[in-house]
Amino acid sequence: MANGITDFQIPIGDWVADGVDWIQINLTGVLDGISEVLELVIDSFEGGLQAVPPVLLAALIVLIATWRVGWKFGLFSVAAMVLIFGMGIWPETISTLALVIASSLVALIIGIPIGIAMARHDPVEAVVRPVLDFMQTMPPFVYLIPAAIFFGLGKVPGSIATLIFAMPPAVRLTNLGIRQVSEEHVEAGKAFGCTSHQLLFKVQLPLAMPSIMAGINQTIMLALSMVVIASMIGAGGLGNTVLTGIQRLDVGLGFEGGLGVVLLAILLDRITQSFGAVGGAAAAPSFFGRMRQAFERWKDSQSSDV
Amino acid sequence: MQDKVVIKDLYKIFGPEPDEALALLEQGFSKDAIFERTRTTVGVQKADFSIREGEVFVVMGLSGSGKSTLVRMLNRLIEPTRGQVIVDGHDITQMSKKQLIEMRRSTMSMVFQSFALLPHKTVAENAAFGLNVSGASKNEQRDRAMRALETVGLAPNADSYPDELSGGMKQRVGLARALATEAPILLMDEAFSALDPLIRTEMQDELVRLQETEAHTIVFISHDLDEAIRIGDRIAIMEGGAIVQIGTPEEIVTKPANDYVRSFFYGVDVSKVFNAGDIASKSLLAVFERTGVNLRSALAQLRDHRGDVAVVIDRGGQFRGLVTVNSLAAAAASDNPQWEAAFLKDAEPVPAEMELSEVLTRVTASERPVPVLDADGRYRGVVDKTILLHTLDKTT
Ligand SMILES: Nc1ncnc2c1ncn2[C@@H]1O[C@H](COP(=O)(O)OP(=O)(O)OP(=O)(O)O)[C@@H](O)[C@H]1O
Ligand SMILES: [Mg+2]
H-helix or E-strand containing B3? Predict the structure, then answer.
C-alpha cells in the first residue's frame, strides 16, 4: 500500500497497441486498398515528373514562376534550378516534389469536403475541431509510428503520415472561409432562389476562395516539411539526403539537402500564394477576366467591320 | 388597388422558447420585460396589414425596431414564429422548400444595403444571377440582364467587375439584379443607406421614375424621413417590433398616432420636407390627351364637367398647357382650331422638386391651380391653395 501511488497506472500505451493489433488483424483488406490507391497516385506523379526531360521541367517551373509571380521571381527560380542541378540533387528534388503533390492532393480531396461539412453543420464542427487541435499539437514524428506499423516502410506510409499531418489547415481554412462569407451575400443567394447546393457553389465557395487557397498553400508547405521527416521511414527524396548527412556526420551533404528543401519551399510557397490572390475580393479583374475582356473587344471590332 | 401581400398576425420571437414569450406578449408585457424574463427577443409582433399592388411601402423605425426581421419574413429568409404571409393568395408560410425556392425566383427579389454583389462575376453576370440560378439559357440570361442594366443606365459597364464601380453604380447593379428576374415584388432593406447623400437622392428619383413606367410592389426599409416621404406611397412606423402607424406621408406627418411617431418629425420644417411633387394631385383637374380628343369635344366635356380648368398632355404624358372653357371656346371658334391657341399664357408649371415654401409664393400669386412637372416634363399633378394650406396647417 505504501507505494500505491507509484503502482497506479493507466495503460494508455497498452490500449493503443491493442487497438493497432486489432486493426491489423481485422482491417487488412482496407489497409491494402488504401495502400494500393496511394501507391498508384504517388507512382504516377513521380513517373510523370521523371519522364519529362529535366531541362524541360526546369524551364517549365521557371515559366510558371515568371507568369504567376513576376520576372524577379523568375530570375530567382532560374538560380534555384541551377543550384539544384549543380548540387546533383535533381532526382531527389523531383521525388520529394512528387510526394508532396500526391500527399497534398489526397489531403485536399479529403480535407476540403470535411471543411465544407464543418461550415454547414455546427455538430460536425463541434466534433472535428478538437480532432484537428489534437492532430496539430501532436509532434509530427508520432505519425510515423502507426503509419509504419500499418503500411511498412516506403513512400506509402510516408505519404500517409504526410497527408494526415498536412490536412488540418485545409479543413480549418475552408470552414473559416465559408463561415466568413457575409450574411448579406448568403441572404442574396437565398433570396434569388438558390438551392443549398447552388448557394455553396455559386456563392459560398467562390467567396471563400482566398481563404481556401491560403489553406491549400499551408497544406502544401506542411506536406513538404513532413515529407522530409518521413524519409526516416523510407520515403526517400531530399529528406533522405539530409538524413544521410546526419548519419554520416557529413555537414556538407546535410546542408545541400537542406538547401534543396528551402528552395523547393520558396518556389511552392510563392507560386501557390499567387493563385490565392486571383479570387480575392481586393483583386482587380483577374487575369482570365482581362483576357476575356480583351477578347470581347477584339470580337466587337471584328463584327463592326462587317 | 388590389392587395398584393397580406400579412396576418405575424410574429417573430428569437430564442429557444417562443411560446412563453408569445404568452407574455398577450398579457401585455413589453419587449424589454420579456427579454428580462425569458432571454428571448421579440423581433416582430402582431403585424397585421396589407401591401397593395404597385405601391412603394416604406417601413421606418429606430434601430432594432424589427424592420429587417419584418421584410425577411416576407420571403422567409427568417422563419416566422406565428402568422401568415399571403402573396397573390398563396400562404408562403405553408410552402414546401421547393415551392419557396420557386416563389423566390419568380415573385420576390431583394436589394441589399451593402449590395452583396459577387466580386468574381462581371456586372452582367451579377445582374443575371437570379436567372442563372433558375436555369435560364445563356442567351436569355444575357438579354434580360442587359435590359435591366439599360433600365438603370449601366449597360456600358456590363463587362466590368464590381470592384471597378462606385458605390452608386454598385447599387444600380444590385437593382438591375432584382429587376432582371421580372419579379413583381421588390424588397429593399436600406438599399440606399450606404450611398452618399447626392447619389442617394439620385437613386431615389430613379426609383420613383421606374415606378412610373413599370410599377413594382416595393417594400422599402428606411430610417430616413426625407427618403420615406420622397419615395413612399405609404409609410409604416415600427417600434419595439410592433407597427404603430400606417398611412400616407401626409397622414403620418399631419396626424401622428403617438409621441414616438411624432418624434420622427420633431423639428422638421414641413415646407422643407415636402416638395411640389409630394403634394401634387392628379384628381383635381380633368386631363385631355391632345392626340385623342379634338377641341370641340374637349369643350363639350369640360362644360359638362364641374370644373372650368383642364390640363392637356401628350400621349407620352408630357405636359402641354392649361385650358379653360373660355380659352377653348375662343380657339374652337377660329377658322383653324389649334390646341396651342387655347393654352393659357400665364400658366407656368413648376418642377416637382420645388420646395413648398417656394410653391407657396407661386400658388398665392396665381388664381388657378399650378401644374407640377417631373424632371423630364411629365405631368405630375396640380397644387392649389386648398391642398397647400391643408398640408401646412396640420403640422404645426
Ligand atoms: N438572429 C437573431 N437572433 C436574435 N435576435 C435577433 C436576431 N436578428 C434580430 N434580432 C433582434 O430582433 C430585433 C429586431 O432586429 P432587426 O434587425 O429586425 O431591426 P432593424 O429595425 O432592422 O434595425 P436596424 O435599423 O439596426 O437594421 C432586435 O432587437 C435584434 O436584436
Ligand atoms: Mg435592419
Answer: strand B3-14
